[in-house]
Amino acid sequence: MEELLGYLHVVVLPQVVDALIIGVALALVALGLTMIFGLLDVINLAHGDLYMLGGYAAFTLLGWGAGYWSALVLVPILVGIVGWGLEELGIRPLLPRADRAIVTLLLTFGVSLILRDVAQVVWGTETYAVAAPFTGIASFADVFVPTYRIFVFGVGVAAIFATWWLLYRTRIGAVLRATAVDPPMVASFGIPIRWVYGFTFLYGCGLAGLAGVLLGPIYAVFPTMGHDFLVMAFAVVIVGGMGSVIGAVVAALLLAQVQGLASLWIPPVWAETLVYGVMLLVLVARPAGLFNRLGEA
Amino acid sequence: MLRTSTLLCSVAIVALASGLGLNAYAADPIKVGIVTPLSGSYAPIGKQVRWGAELAVKEINAAGGVNGRPFELLFEDEEANPPVAVRKSEKLLQQDKVDLLTGTVNSGSTLAVGQVAERNNRILVTTVSYAPSITGAQCNPNVFRVNANAFMQSNALTSWLTKNVSGKRYFFIGPDYEMGRSTVSAFQDDIKRLGGTDVGSAYPPLGAKDFTTYVGQIRAARPDVIMTATAGNDTVRLLTQLKEYGILSNKLTLAGAAGAVTQENIGAMGGAGEGFLSAAGYSIDIDTPANKKFVTAFKKEFQSDPDLFAADTYGLFYLFKQAIEKAGGTEEQKLRAAMEDASWETPQGTKKMRKGDHQAIVDMVVVKVNGSDFQTVGKVPGAEAVGPDKCEKF
After folding, report:
1. How far is CA A99 from CA A103, A106, A112, A223, B29, in A?
2. Contacts of B244 in chain A (CB under 8 A)
């Protein structure tokens, strides 16, 4: 009995704490993905590569002598602007088309490949470590957590609440939610829909950039980092409900726990498979996901 | 106007023709296909392989080539992924008609490409893979290995560790495929034989991002020594994350396979690899004129220090040169015979090929990471480390 408690304490509990932190970061990537889908019906396959861009931008800014704090502020803005440019130049012209779901999927897939190759040309194929702004370790009841991970958790939670507040407590949020349901009606009020769409991309991609800066010191940066993360983020969006903000957060926390805990007992590769198993089950039981779309709740 | 263009055309034709003429008269190059990871987790290793090959070829070609024929290198990215390595090596053999293959890093790639080479009647030499099976249970008449294998590393390293480290509790980590599993099992066998205790092991997948899963397990096992067979960027993430979680301390000894901590990934670790011990067939501080010459030339060419992969790949081209000269060409049967009983000079000294299993006998050095350098702390002769010939196929 004591041995079991010891095992739960030393092995299982730290894993739960760690998965919670990774879950929050995963939620940031999934939030942008789900917002863009909820408003524009666009599946942004380049989203993971914008996360990668965030990691590399932080690495480069730090290399130029900028402090971590300025990178934390600047990088999401930079990545947001890239995302906005993607919407302005790539997505917008395709939106009037009837087959926009599939053509934008192809477009963002192409952009994803280009971004990854550009990263390989500019930064090479090696992995780079991003220096954490502080090191050290905190322990609560003999569970050790690096202080930087606590910081990531804090910033992530703050960003999630800010997003919730923006969507549900501000006028901009009301416009966004209304646009998700009935764009022509919103337009008829004299609100320029193109700016709403542009803002959605700016904000959603900015969140991916933020996740890139936050996770850079933990996972290091490399060209395929976005791809690895995107697949997981998609599972999150599907489980949470395509276009659901609350669903994205809940599903991110849930799937991170599934993966984290499962990898204690089965090989991590299979833990990933288990995550997709959960995704399939949700698709079978509730094809629309666990939560409702943006604007419908 | 017409005249100008006619003139330009004829100049172009002349230039082209003379170019073609030159090619036709120059000696046929000896084409060497290098299937090595140029991207992904093992990219840093592929880079050293590439540099080692380029330097050797530059020197040999400048000195007149092999019987007047220059070496020509053709690179393909194997992504440390056996199916990709097979596809790329088929392309090199069928389309580019290469005479020899080398460069494979992932042991699974070496085993798979070895079969491709055998089907195409060509020779593959690995300068990096250290899974014992390559020259053991799964040995192949068309595959040679010039670097030290996991048995040799384990032999040399574990005998040093058990003599010099007082703690007896050992924890093992290896990537979840042929090389990782076999290296860890070699470490485990030797440590147990020498009186150490196996307190646990973990097998993360190749290219794992998150090693924190194992932190609790390691903490619970209270090891005195952690031995790892991870390589390239995996070791970077493993050691930085262990450091982040406060596992590393001066009471814990880090050790592992020769490819775990190298010149190429040590910089990215931010000091987490300090004190890491490994046994390898090469160390940059080997004090011989041949090695000094190699290191100086390498630094001048690439502004970077060579590691064991570069040294072993560099040395291989001198084996190629010697064997092709002896065989009078690159015909498979004769070349194999010439390589099988070869002794040749490399930066680390004379290497000897063992005919029975195609494993080169290499003197081993135990090295310790000190800052960004590797210091030799012990030596084991190759004949002592190499162990018995376990190949039964030829």
Report:
1. 6, 11, 20, 31, 54
2. 132, 135, 137, 146, 148-149, 218
Query: Which CATH fold topology does B151-280 show?
Result: Rossmann fold (3.40.50)
Distance CA B119, CA B142 (A): 9
Q: How far apart are CA A146 and CA B336, in angstroms?
A: 55
Q: Where in chain B is the domain with CATH 3.40.50.2300?
A: 30-148+285-362, 151-280
Q: At what angle do helices B308-327 and B289-302 cross, to 10 degrees?
A: 110
- Which residues, other chains included, contact B336 with Cβ-Cβ below 8 Å and sequence gap of 6+? B123, B141, B142
Q: Which CATH class is domain B30-148+285-362?
A: alpha beta
CA distance A15 to chain B (A): 6
**β-strand pairing of B349-353 with B360-361:** antiparallel
- The helix (run of H) or strand (run of E) holding residue B373 is strand B373-380
- Partner-chain contact B220 A10, CB within 8 Å: yes
| Model ipTM value | 0.76
Q: Do A260 and B213 touch (CB under 8 A)?
A: yes
H helices within chain A, ranges in order? 2-7, 13-40, 47-63, 68-86, 100-123, 147-169, 171-181, 183-188, 193-219, 225-240, 245-265, 268-285
Token pair listed for B280: 């390898």
**HSE on the CB side for A279, CA within 13 Å?**
20
The type of residue at A286 is R
Calculate ∠ Cα A257-A229-B112, nearest 5°: 105
> What type of residue sits at position B119?
R
Cα(B322)–Cα(B336) distance, integer angstroms: 12
List of chain A residues whose C-beta atoms are within 8 Å of the C-beta of residue B41: 127
Task: DSSP letter for A146, please.
Answer: E
State how far the alpha carbon of B185 is from the alpha carbons of A175, B132, B190, in Å.
62, 11, 9
The domains found in chain A, sorted by start residue, are 2-125+136-285 (1.10.3470)
CA distance linking residue A212 with residue A79, whole number of Å: 10
Q: What is the pLDDT along chain B (394 residues), one digit of tens a residue?
A: 444 454 444 444 444 444 443 443 457 899 999 999 998 778 889 999 999 999 999 999 999 999 999 999 999 999 889 999 999 999 999 999 999 999 999 999 999 999 999 999 999 999 999 899 999 999 999 999 999 998 999 999 999 999 999 999 999 999 998 889 989 999 999 999 999 999 999 999 888 888 988 998 898 899 999 999 998 889 989 999 999 898 998 899 999 998 899 887 888 887 899 999 999 999 998 989 999 999 999 999 999 999 999 999 999 999 999 999 999 999 999 999 999 989 999 999 999 999 999 999 999 999 999 988 888 999 989 988 898 898 988 8
Give yes or no for A11 touching B (CB within 8 A). yes
